[in-house]
Amino acid sequence: NAGVTQTPKFRVLKTGQSMTLLCAQDMNHEYMYWYRQDPGMGLRLIHYSVGEGTTAKGEVPDGYNVSRLKKQNFLLGLESAAPSQTSVYFCASSPHRPGTGELFFGEGSRLTVL
Amino acid sequence: SQQGEEDPQALSIQEGENATMNCSYKTSINNLQWYRQNSGRGLVHLILIRSNEREKHSGRLRVTLDTSKKSSSLLITASRAADTASYFCATDRGRGGSYIPTFGRGTSLIVHP
Q: Which of A11, A15, A16, B63 has the most CB atoms lying inside 10 A of its own CB?
């Protein structure tokens, strides 16, 4: 099994450009999450989804949008990238209700905004 | 805001020694998890301990939980160079009391061969 796959793995954007990060999981998990990881800040939750067609805001949602049109995919969009969004983005999925069991993480997507 | 905070931020030891990392949190929890992250990789789940458990083992890992002190510790015994990684605790209480897993800033462990 591939588990959780994130694409692209690396991307460089100019300020104001838009892009979409794709997270795909093949484990039929109900719950999916997008985190960002910055040096010294740990992981911070951007948005999450408790099922197909549902999304909710996390701790740092501003500047991002998400969609979960299919159960296996969770998309993170940046409409107008800013240098403050330079970060490593991690997607995670879980079969467990939030906070009740382990998360399965992808390998990360490193985004640089110039 | 971070619910769990790991201590120390960095730890450097020799192979064969034990490594202890601590996690403190602010509000009551139902469970706490520990994850490992190798450089440039995603996080990998190590162990989950529930609020009614005081200690849990998995191989060379030993996790304790003291709900009265709102703290947990992760002990890695007989460490190996391959244990070099960052270790994160995650609680099931986020800001505003949400049940979304909330991670600390992590402890960076270096094990010298």
A: B63
